[in-house]
Amino acid sequence: MKLLFRLLSCIVFLPLILGCPQKRDSSEVIVAEEHQKIIGDSTISKINGVSFVASKDAILQENISPLKNIHADYAAIMPFGFIKSLDHPKIIYNQERQWFGETDEGAKQYIKMLHKNDIRVMMKPQIWVWNGEFTGLVKMASEADWLELENSYRNFITDFAKVAEEEKVEILCIGTELEKFIEHRPEYWRSLIEEIRKVYKGKLTYAANWDEYKRVPFWDALDFIGVDAYFPVSESKTPTVADARKGWQRWKEGLKGFSEKENKKILFTEYGYRSVDFAGKEPWESDHRLTSMNFEAQSNTLQALYEEVWSEQWFAGGFLWKWFIAHEKVGGNTDNQFTPQNKPAEAIVGKYYKE
């Protein structure tokens, strides 16, 4: 009788015991599938965005129409804070002497107008060093200065995070190209993200420079891997589309692998090319001493980017650098800067943003 009872017990309980590991494995599979869905769902539409340059003026309806014409569905607005030098710890922002679009009041007005026109928003508060030096080199000389900078930056970004929450902004970019700041104070950035999450409920990203993004240590705490995508793609004076597409191959492999490693999509927080000779060689170069005009180079490099990157499953979309409010007064055949406005490249942008 005892032997029979033991046999029955084994029959009843053995499937339950063996079933637990099987249930755990199944849940792990489900989680893995969900993670892959985040990265691999090609049905999610891409962000077709522009970097909407702050102006001294408010936005009018006439300033929105050109965005509609190129089928943009997102705009990055960029309020600014200023520091005196690379080792100065105090950020000055939201001042009366700043341009309207650089302030919190201006940001609110821009957001309201964009939302009214069904254009979603990424708020991207940025730092400008007064003498124009690269923000990635901002670095303090003492612990006291680091602490002052941390406090100043916390005030700067959380003030705009509150504006973003109030106006229901879809994405907030917590910083732009601040490599040395992050390298020397990584724990500060983690705690800052936690503080931002308390006041802002939308999606978060950070805009890493194209050669910085793999060293950012806190992607796990954000929603997108943000990259300012000024990857060199061609050494040619006038790159062909095929030449620039070929130049993208090595960068695409790295971006795809990193997206899979971090299990997050990559967002080009900035991308673009100037209408100059060698536009694909050093796309980040903004030196006004470059005087050449090459609209074909700008068009071809942009087309190659769209053809190579926009359909990738690891890619969330991007924000074209840059777009000015006074559309009829900017760009054109005498301008060799980044904007595609009133240039052949504008039609390229519109074509791919429509697809």
Which terms would index this structure?
alpha/beta; globular; three-stranded mixed beta sheet; disordered N terminus; 355 residues; 16% strand
Report on the architecture of this protein.
By secondary structure, the chain is of the alpha/beta class. Helix content is about 45%, strand content about 15%. It has 9 helices and 11 strands. The strands form 2 sheets. The protein has an 8-stranded parallel β-barrel with strand order 1-2-5-7-8-9-10-11. Strands 4-3-6 form a 3-stranded mixed sheet, with no helix packed on it. Helix 4 packs parallel to helix 6. The N terminus is likely disordered.
Task: Present the secondary structure layout.
Blueprint: H1 2-40, E1 47-52, H2 61-69, E2 74-77, E3 80-83, E4 92-93, H3 104-116, E5 120-123, E6 126-129, H4 143-166, E7 171-176, H5 179-184, H6 186-199, E8 203-209, E9 225-228, H7 241-262, E10 266-271, H8 295-309, E11 315-323, H9 344-354
Parallel strand pairs: 1-2, 1-11, 2-5, 3-6, 5-7, 7-8, 8-9, 9-10, 10-11
Antiparallel strand pairs: 3-4
In DSSP terms, counting alpha (H) and pi (I) runs of 4 or more, how many helices? 9
What is the mean predicted local confidence, pLDDT? 90
Shape: globular
Distance between the termini: 75 Å
User: What is the topology, as strand order, of the major beta sheet?
Assistant: 1-2-5-7-8-9-10-11
The count of β-strands is 11
Q: Please tell me how large the radius of gyration is.
A: 24 Å
Binned, the helix content reads: 40-55%
Q: Strand share of the residues?
A: 15-25%
Segments where pLDDT lies below 50 for 5+ residues? 1-43
Q: Please give the largest β-sheet.
A: 8 strands, parallel, barrel
